[in-house]
Amino acid sequence: RSSDLMDEQREMVSAEQVSALIDKYEPSEAAKNQNAMTKDGFLMYLLSEDGGIFNVEHKKVYQDMTLPLSQYYISSSHNTYLMEDQLKGPSSTEAYIRALSRGCRCLELDCWNGPNSEPVIYHGYTLTSKILFVDVMKAIKNYAFKASPYPVIISLENHCSIDQQMVMAKHMKTILGDMLLMAPPDNNLTDLPSPEQLKGKILVKGKKLKRVDDGLAHNGPSNAEAADVSDEDEAAEMEDESVKNHVSSKSESSKLKLAKELSDLVVYCKSVHFRSFEYAKEHQTFSEMSSLTEGKASKLANESGTQFIVHNTKQIGRA
Q1: Residues 183-202 pLDDT 10s
Q2: Are 316 and 274 in contact (CB under 8 A)?
Q3: Is the pTM of this model over 0.70?
Q4: Phi then psi for 285, rounded to 5 degrees?
Q5: 3-class DSSP state for residue 227?
Q6: What distance in Å separates the CA atoms of residue 35 and residue 273, rounded to the nearest whole number?
Q7: Alpha carbons 239 and 160: distance in angstroms, whole number
Q8: What is the C-alpha separation between 206 and 2, in angstroms, rounded?
Q9: Is 208 in contact with 284 (CB distance < 8 Å)?
Q10: In this structure, are residues 128 and 82 in contact, taking their beta carbons and an 8 Å threshold?
Q11: Which residues face 156 on adjacent strands?
Q12: Separation CA 128–CA 114 (nearest Å)
């Protein structure tokens, strides 16, 4: 009965739609003639796509995708390159292919100096195996938009020398080509662009050099050829003590020399250290984003939930 579907399942259906379901699933002609459904017909309906709990309308994107990027939950991965455990397991490009095939939109790349001037990706300070940065770029190019047309964020944890950073920038520009976002899609200087505007684009999250003229995060290229930036190693957020000990041994004021070529690829996702919601509101721009441990994010959500929500309407946060 249409009343059952409307009252119990909250589905808006007409008598004609109910008759169509009976005609489709009811095996008894006698029942069909009475516009009724037997137990067998009802069972066939329940086991069908029409009777499933999943709303078939949601097979396609049904949400408004024209709001600023910070208004959405983004499917993200941590240590994307790892196939197994985080201390001694293998790294593989297959891990990136799997993540992208499942709809993941934010990938993590821990980049280190490699042999023959080719950067490698692996979990620093551990026994995990290494893969070439260039091979990961090829995998991302081939699979970035197989499962979804919406933007992919490459989150760089950069530990490389200036020379190898320049190699990274070259590989990204050469391999990703027009997929790589190199400039804002519009002149909006108050909000992030929408997923709709960024369809088919790959964004780079990482450190960015300051401009000499304004000293603030800026969407344009930097003026300096290379400079020091703060080196907040995200590996410090690991719960594993052996990793923490390696990272904590570095100076609190540790600096990383950043190449202009790599800095210029960061358009909207400038990586900055999270201090507080108040500091972010007063001093940070919409193009900056911070990474938080799950523990810290949970603590902030419990203690300052409203501020957390307001913060993430303007800036992307990663946990």
Answers
A1: 999 888 889 999 999 999 99
A2: no
A3: yes
A4: -105, 170
A5: strand
A6: 65
A7: 24
A8: 55
A9: no
A10: yes
A11: 109
A12: 14
